[in-house]
Amino acid sequence: MYKPVDDSPITAYEVNRVRVVRSLEMIQDVIVISLCIGLFSFMAIQVRDMFLSLLPPLNFQVVTADILFLLILVELFRLLIIYLQEQRISIGVAVEVSIVSALREVIVKGVLETNWTQVLAACAFLLVLGILLILRVWLPPTFEGIDPEQQISQRYRKTRQNQ
User: Fold this and answer.
1) Nearest C-alpha neighbor of 147 from the set 93, 71, 76
2) pTM > 0.85: yes or no
């Protein structure tokens, strides 16, 4: 019937800790949601600016920079949405954002106008990011939900079930 609190296997510390963790996660979700709203508003402003930059006289470098910047914003928005859904940062999306950002800087500045050491550093950075993106496919999935490498994760689940 009624069980005294002293006999309960859950201590008051554990109850308070769970409540504090839930509260902090909720505050963190509110922060991420506000970031999503702010990023979406900024993307709308960037789309307007991009269409204004398409008016004559047309500057190809500015249009390209605006389009690539908008793609970076879209990828960051996708990263925030994945975080809200799964409470984790997607390594693949973060690497993709880094790759597009590095390529944007190279394209906007122009390879011919950039110092050769900076081009070499950008190439090394892109190579490391590409290797990280390839290695990520073979890492076992640790979360359910959004899984960009579905075939690899299904294969991993099958081998795990067979063991």
Assistant:
1) 93
2) no
C-alpha distances in Å from residue 2, one per residue of 11, 13, 22? 17, 21, 27
Q: pLDDT tens digits for 81-116?
A: 988 888 878 788 888 888 888 888 888 777 778 788
What tokens appear for 120 in the block?
A: 């070499």
What is the dihedral sign for C-alpha 131, 134, 139, 141? positive
Question: What distance in Å separates the CA atoms of residue 113 and residue 37, rounded to the nearest whole number?
Answer: 37
The CA distance from 143 to 32, in Å, is: 19
Q: Considering only CA atoms, which of 44, 65, 156, 160 is closest in space to residue 110? A: 65
Residue 8 vs residues 4, 5, 12, 122: alpha-carbon distances, Å = 7, 5, 10, 59
Tokens coding 122: 């950008």
Q: Which amino acid is at 100?
A: V
